[in-house]
Write a structure and sequence with these properties.
- It is a single chain.
- The protein has six helices and two strands; from the N terminus they run ααααααββ.
- The chain is mainly alpha-helical.
- Strands 1-2 form a two-stranded antiparallel ribbon.
- β1 and β2 form a beta hairpin.
- The radius of gyration is 32 Å and the shape is flat.
Length: 196
């Protein structure tokens, strides 16, 4: 099968086209509801607790003397940094949960795109990926114990990569291909010039 559905075959594979989700995509009402729900839940259940926890840990480290405070601003810069990092860590930690919510939507182009992206990653030899012309020969004959027959097949089908020889005359102190050579021009007392 060459990636197209051949209706003459009894086990022809027919797939729905993957929807294109780009910058111009307008989400459905249900998708907007899930976006808002994800934003609220990621803020209240992940970002706020992680930001508060990271600020408390940072303040504890400063008070124990493990972290130093700023001479002019005290612990404020480190606490703000810890809060920002906790906020973004909370948002990022909720991404998988939010993706699952979109995948569970029934008539959602965005959910369909996420589901089809998952099938593409989970089955590398499936419909969406092309099989290498070397896979069938190598996988059929590869084993822990190599036979002369398998070695011959590998030599015939796999491309050969020759290593590039290393020049022993090159070292770290010599430039490689870049020269600072400026042509020396000599001038005699009569004003005649020539290259050396």
């Amino acid at each position: 099968m060459n990636g197209r559905a051949d209706f003459g075959e009894p086990n022809a594979e027919v797939t729905r086209p993957i929807p294109h989700i780009g910058a111009d995509y307008i989400p459905t009402e249900e998708e907007r509801r899930v976006f808002a729900e994800c934003s609220d839940e990621s803020f209240w259940f992940r970002s706020v607790p992680l930001a508060a926890t990271s600020m408390l840990i940072t303040q504890g480290l400063i008070s124990k003397g493990i972290l130093s405070s700023h001479p002019k601003y005290g612990s404020i810069p480190k606490l703000i940094f810890a809060c920002i990092m906790g906020y973004f860590a909370g948002k990022l930690s909720y991404v998988k949960t939010c993706q699952e919510k979109f995948k569970n939507l029934e008539n959602s182009p965005l959910g369909e795109a996420l589901r089809s992206g998952q099938t593409r990653r989970s089955s590398p030899t499936g419909h969406y990926s092309q099989k290498s012309k070397y896979d069938s020969n190598v996988s059929a004959h590869s084993s822990f114990v190599t036979s002369p027959e398998a070695d011959n097949i590998e030599k015939e089908t796999l491309p050969r990569y020759e290593p590039i020889p290393f020049s022993a005359s090159m070292n770290e102190s010599t430039p490689t291909g870049i020269t600072d050579h400026i042509a020396q021009v000599k001038v005699n007392k009569y004003g005649d010039t020539w290259d050396e």
